[in-house]
Amino acid sequence: MAEGKTVPPPHRIRVLLVDDEAVYVDVLANRLGKRGFDVQKAYTSPEALLVLRTQQFDVAVLDLKMPDMDGIEVLKIAKQVDPMLQVIMLTGHGSAAACEQGLALGAFDYMMKPCEFEALVDKIREAFEKSQRLNNRKIDLFLHPFCCIQPYACRMDVMITHRPRVVILRISASMIFSSCRRFLAAASVTFSTNTSISLGFIR
Q1: How far apart are CA 50 and CA 36, in angstroms?
Q2: Which of 20, 131, 149, 194 is most buried, judged by most C-beta within 10 A?
């Protein structure tokens, strides 16, 4: 390894567990934590929605049968708050219609309760991989319009941090003013409000 270089720590998958069965949630959160997941618990629907509005997660594991608010309603609001969030629904027998509705609303998948722990771990990792692919595709679409502008005059370094979603672009001062205007116009249109953009010019 070259002197002065550091290897960034691997990203810990952030998981939100939403279930009114406190004992089940506590045990599951403990087991997931031992596997390296960063877990947040919510025992009620309002608590889950409050957490989603103040923190960002990669995956949510949501029980569809919540006593205070229907799980489908929670799913709808969660996808509005963070469209990139991947939601795994947990359901009991006889809830096939609700699961199909959830998938139509953008849920990643569903599992029957009680589910095998290893199967759930695999499903969370699959959901995270999908989230990563979507994030990368979004960034590619963002960069494409202006990466073709004066490639001989423009050098662009990109740094991406996963949580919160931040894209930092350092653009060489040799980029002409009109190109910068196009860049800023593209940035304002392409990115959602939960993504921040930082610009700094380098020589």
Answers
A1: 24
A2: 131
The CATH number of 14-136 is: 3.40.50.2300
Domain boundaries, the chain: 14-136, 148-202
44-73 burial, b for 16+ CB within 10 Å, e for fewer? Answer: bbeebbebbeeebbbbbbbbbebeeeebbe
Rounded to two decimals, the pTM is 0.66
pLDDT by residue (tens digit) across 69-103?
A: 888 999 999 999 999 999 999 987 667 788 889 99
The tokens describing 177, both together, are 């003013």
Distance CA 35, CA 173 (A): 46
Pairing of strands 86-91, 109-112: parallel
